[in-house]
Every structure is written in C-alpha cells, then in structure tokens.
Design goal:
By secondary structure, the chain is of the alpha/beta class. It has two domains: 82 residues, Metallo-beta-lactamase, Chain A, CATH 3.60.15.10; 129 residues, no CATH class. It is built from ten helices and eleven strands. The strands form two sheets. It has a seven-stranded mixed β-sheet with strand order 5-6-7-8-9-10-11. Strand 1, helix 1 and strand 2 form a beta-alpha-beta unit. Helix 8 packs parallel to helix 9. The longest helix is centred in the C-terminal third of the chain and has 13 residues.
C-alpha cells in the first residue's frame, strides 16, 4: 500500500527474487518501502522478511506473538511492537491493528488511514467477529480473505484433520462467509473489494468472484453492487493497482 508519501509491505512469504519480480511488475522499487507489517508468524506470510530487511533500515511492525512464533524474526533488531487497537503512525499513514481469529500467536488485521481515506486488510481468519466487522466497515477499500469454497474443500484432497482446521473459527474464511457479510453486515461504503488468499486446491476464482458479486447484487439497495468493484488477487503476480 502506498499513500504517495509512505509505502508499506504487508507480509512477505517468499524470497528476494520473487519479491523483486513482483515489485517490478507493480512499478515499485525496494527503496520505496518504508516498513513491513506482519499479520502473523506463519511462514507463508513471514519467511522472506529477515533476508529482505537485512542490512536495510526498514523497520518491521509485528506483535510480540508474531516475533516469537516465526523463525528468524527474533534476529531482527529494527522492529516495533504492535498492540491490538493501538494505532501507530508511519509518516502520514495511521495503522490500527485489530485482533483476528487464527491459529497463530497474536494474529492481526490492519485498518490503514491517510489523507481522509481508509482501508482494511483481513486475511487468515476463521470468523468475522463483531470487532472485525466494525474495523472493515466505513472503509474506502478492503482486502478480505475468500479462501475456499466449502463444498470443494470437503471433496478435495486435504486430509480430514486439515479440512477441520480450515473450517474452524481459527482457520480461514470461505466464500459463503464473505457473501453473508456482504448481504447482512456490509455498510456499502467500499469502492473496491479485493478477494484474497484464494486456495488453489479448494477454490476457483470465478466461484469466489461470483459469490461476492451475487451477494452485493442481492442487497436491498441495488446501487451498492454498481458502486463496489470486486477484484481478485493472485498468488503468482500483483493484483490490479487502484487509486482511491
């Protein structure tokens, strides 16, 4: 995310060559990045951080639990502790962490504000608690997990124990759960909704996209569908760049 004055990287679950390629595709340079924010310590979100910040002055913002959980993060000296619902500032960017439900130590989502605009990032969570719903409403843009289609997960290749984990309140949000939020609890303000963390084994981009669009279209105020653009994100390359 970039405000024009501040650029932050949220999570980094791959190595330096992959990051360099993705930054090139997004027309960004490493030197533009002012900080790294970590949602939690699972390796698919954090493994690339130690090598990226090594010999750089880039600070890493994370919870105490995240720093304790992930290999290599304890070696990072330039880091700042995040506490849920306690805001921090990086130049013109205000970051408010909020608690999420996932099988990690002190996982977080982020509400980010600058220049009168705000957005939220909530991925890797098994439920949309009242707190999470309050943080992801009243936003100009959203990045929300739409990890799996529940039917595809149940008939898919995962072992039963892993399926139970994904479906639990400490697991991941399904297309249905996002659709339920959009139908019942979404306030209609968001101009851009990005569906994130789609499972390659247990979801299809077209299914996730259609589920969210249908839920928006079923709202009593039909204009909500027209005013909120739904975007997909991808594991292999950057998503669409938008300005708000």
């Amino acid at each position: 995310m970039s405000t024009g004055e501040t650029c932050v990287l949220i999570d980094l679950g791959f190595g330096p060559r992959s990051l360099a390629r993705r930054l090139r595709e997004a027309n960004l340079a490493e030197t533009h990045i002012d900080a790294v924010l970590l949602t939690h310590g699972h390796l698919d979100h954090s493994i690339g951080v130690p090598s990226f910040v090594r010999n750089k002055k880039i600070p890493v913002y994370m919870s105490q639990g995240t720093r304790k959980e992930a290999t290599g993060l304890q070696e990072i000296e330039n880091w700042q502790s995040l506490v849920s619902e306690t805001s921090v500032h990086i130049k013109d960017l205000e970051i408010e962490p909020f608690p999420i439900s996932h099988d990690a130590l002190q996982p977080m989502g982020f509400r980010l504000s600058a220049g009168g605009k705000c957005g939220a990032v909530a991925t890797d969570l098994g439920e949309l608690s009242p707190t999470v719903k309050s943080k992801i409403n009243d936003c100009d843009w959203l990045v929300l997990e739409s990890n799996h289609d529940e039917n595809l997960l149940r008939i898919g290749p995962y072992p039963w124990k892993l399926k139970q984990r994904v479906l639990s309140r400490l697991g991941h949000l399904s297309n249905r759960m996002i659709a339920d939020f959009l139908r019942k609890d979404y306030d209609g303000r968001t101009a851009h909704l990005f569906l994130a963390h789609l499972s390659r084994q247990n979801n299809e981009p077209e299914i996730a996209l259609e589920s969210a669009r249908k839920a928006l279209g079923n709202r009593s105020r039909q204009s909500l569908f027209d005013s909120c653009q739904v975007h997909l994100t991808y594991q292999g390359h950057p998503s669409e760049m938008i300005s708000v």
